[in-house]
């Protein structure tokens, strides 16, 4: 049995080859998992990748809605979530009946669902977006109809600011990690690093994104830091992005916007979980019923068409 990180990585690489697995990892995963993944990306990139995976077995290192999205796009594949307890509190904040009630009162509404939603909520939504695709997708929707944006009111506010002439109704939800950043702590970090550029995820509140030099998805933030001639950055998204950037760009400095930007759910996946899932002694296979597979896919397909 392996007992070190490196031995576990070697065992995972061997097992995945033998058992025909492809490993997808969200960028918020730890460096030791990112290193052994076949593909690493933000939600949008992972959704796109899911469509073209050759292997029959896909292991998702991330949270449940991401594994569900892979299953929706590749129903013929065996999709395994490496850490079954890894959920997203924002995705699970409310149930489909609330959206159905809203629709009943607003029959002309277009329901736009952030991909961070359960498959069940996607069934009652018209189109999905990710943080990377939200602006382009919403820009292509009919201009004369109300949009109900679920479940992240902060990403929704960011989109609404870009389309001031549209009626965009925001829902009450949000990411407890990103939305938990206070303006006070953000200003304290900025004051400690006056020469640094502030890069912020749109799940942060409008009061925090208003302080940013750049607002974008996790890979948008990584790309900005990679291409920028600047040397210091404050990273307003999950702490893992600070680690990944520090490894990749040792000549630049990266500071977390606050030490509280840690998603416990994303941190649940360990290398022993990954190995156990591939070997069939851990993980959870994602199983969705026929109706969910059919209905939830519609809004993801719509995003792929418009993004
Ligand atoms: P991205 O859309 O940037 O991948 O973000 C996903 C997420 O869970 C952010 O908290
Ligand atoms: Fe969900 Fe927030 Fe964690 Fe992303 S960071 S997975 S939105 S709880």
What this model shows, in words?
- This protein is α/β, with parallel strands linked by helices and 307 residues long.
- The chain folds into three domains: 5-86 and 266-287, NadA-like (Rossmann fold), CATH 3.40.50.10800; 96-174 and 293-306, NadA-like (Rossmann fold); 183-256, NadA-like (Rossmann fold), CATH 3.40.50.10800.
- 42% of the residues lie in helices and 16% in strands.
- The strands form three sheets. It has a five-stranded mixed sheet, with helices on both faces. The protein has a four-stranded parallel sheet with strand order 6-5-7-8. The chain has a four-stranded parallel sheet with strand order 10-9-11-12, with helices on one face.
- Strand 9, helix 10 (206-209) and strand 10 (214-215) form a beta-alpha-beta unit.
- Helix 1 packs parallel to helix 13.
- It is globular.
- The mean pLDDT is 96.
- The structure holds 1,3-dihydroxyacetonephosphate and iron/sulfur cluster (SF4).
- The site of 1,3-dihydroxyacetonephosphate has 11 residues, from loops.
